[in-house]
Amino acid sequence: MASRCFTPFKLPRVRVTTLDSCGQAVTGSCATVVSDGIISIAQTNEYEDRQEFFTKNGDGLFCVRETNAPILKWLNLVITFCNVDPELVNIMTGNSMVADDSATAYNIGYNVDENSATLSNFALEGWTRLANQGVACTGGLQYGYFLYPFVKEGTIGDITYQNDVVSFVVNARTSSNSLWGVGPYDVDLSDNAGTLDDPIPLLTPIGSTTHQRMFITRMEPPTASCGCSPLFVA
């Protein structure tokens, strides 16, 4: 089987989807947010340390030389935004929102609540550009697509209010046992001759031990907007 190599470059878009405590996508009128206010996502892998079994014999030589390989526990994420979307904050951290008194009741802010991280369960998707693609107007533009299918324990990071732009940071970690499956969205275009260019979801379901997936996609990222959008799965 041949491979297609790629180099991720920049991060124009992310999508956050509400999950329940079991990792299942939650449907409803306010279930997902697409943002172009993303600055960066810093990922740090956290492993259970290698376990070593080394025993010497009576002559001082090793008679047992074995190890248990390191085991991935989760991925720590530091997600930095350049603007504040109250509904995005609510999904990612579980903190409650502050509304105005207008007839349409806009969410205009958020609270910082105790124990809010226990309510934080979401999926995080992102789209990167790819380096060395040539001119976009010739068509066939591709993107890097990545998915963290089950993220939890989101908390608001340290904030400094000063004579400068204030970044908004969320700290969270991934979890195993995702119920994302192939997901509720189409995220690629088919390369099969019989269904060429038809929108398709993930080709294979997310496994119980999968913390992240990344691949090349020919489908453009969704359109960003302030506030949440509905999610209804047939």
How would you describe this structure to a colleague?
The protein is mostly beta strands and 234 residues long. The chain is 3% helix and 44% strand. The strands form four sheets. Strands 1, 2, 3, 6, 9, 10, 11, 14 and 15 form a nine-stranded antiparallel sheet that branches. The protein has a two-stranded antiparallel sheet with strand order 4-5. It has a two-stranded antiparallel ribbon with strand order 7-8. A hairpin with a 7-residue loop joins β7 (97-99) and β8 (107-110). The longest helix has 8 residues, at 86-93. The radius of gyration is 21 Å and the shape is globular. 25% of the residues are buried. The mean pLDDT is 94.
- According to DSSP, the number of beta strands is 15
Low-confidence stretches: none
Distance between the termini: 35 Å
| Helicity, as a percent range | under 10%
Structural category is: mainly beta
**3D shape:** globular
Can you count the helices? 1
Largest sheet: 9 strands, antiparallel
Q: Give the overall average pLDDT.
A: 94
Strand content: 35-45%
Order of helix and strand elements from N to C terminus = EEEEEEHEEEEEEEEE
Radius of gyration: 21 Å
